[in-house]
Hints:
Blueprint: H1 7-13, H2 18-27, E1 39-43, H3 49-59, E2 64-69, H4 72-81, E3 87-91, H5 100-106, E4 109-115, H6 124-134, E5 135-146, H7 150-159, H8 187-200, E6 203-218, H9 221-228, H10 240-256, E7 259-261, E8 264-278
Parallel strand pairs: 1-2, 1-4, 2-3, 4-5
Antiparallel strand pairs: 5-8, 6-8, 7-8
Amino acid sequence: xxxxxxxxxxxxxxxxxxxxxxxxxxxxxxxxxxxxxxxxxxxxxxxxxxxxxxxxxxxxxxxxxxxxxxxxxxxxxxxxxxxxxxxxxxxxxxxxxxxxxxxxxxxxxxxxxxxxxxxxxxxxxxxxxxxxxxxxxxxxxxxxxxxxxxxxxxxxxxxxxxxxxxxxxxxxxxxxxxxxxxxxxxxxxxxxxxxxxxxxxxxxxxxxxxxxxxxxxxxxxxxxxxxxxxxxxxxxxxxxxxxxxxxxxxxxxxxxxxxxxxxxxxxxxxxxxxxxxxxxxx
Length: 282
């Protein structure tokens, strides 16, 4: 199952991720300069705004950018609002068990970007293995993702409550399987786990930088709810009234978990920026 986001709502919140995305680009020295790259891939492009306005100019003079998202609605929105002759938008689930048709159409890539997407993918091992397949032998990838955070914790807590057990869905339908632990993994454990998945995908980690307890900032409380609530799944047997009551409590818990200032609302997240490259196949 893929986390659901409204393109229109997401577009209003897109600024929250830009500073760290830019920081990831600034701090990364790619072994192969953009001038030697034929095409690049942006996984989890969302609305396409960052892809067109930041990532494409940053990656010049690379001649082509393919931008993909698992949600058809996002790709439709990106095509309509952020078209560019050097960007090809396409629907692709990064954790698909079969990417042969996509590879046949687009070929392999010199560089793969993936910002704020990996933590919304249940089968991270499959997604990383696919990145290894999508990269050329000397290709590189740059990931920005977060570890287990307050939304997952609250969802897991509510799913274990008797009054919501038959109404709210399992958060592990959306979030990585590796998050299903009795004790929250340390940041070092998360780093080790991701590096192992990278190695299993036939890639080598060049660097992995951690930004602990970084604020995920929104303009207001509604921004938090607009981003996260649409992802909450419910059981088929739940009535509409039960669903709305559950979402009301989830909303209250989310807002209570945030820190408020006069002009913002935020909760802490642990951010990982990982740079890896594909091993040359013999």
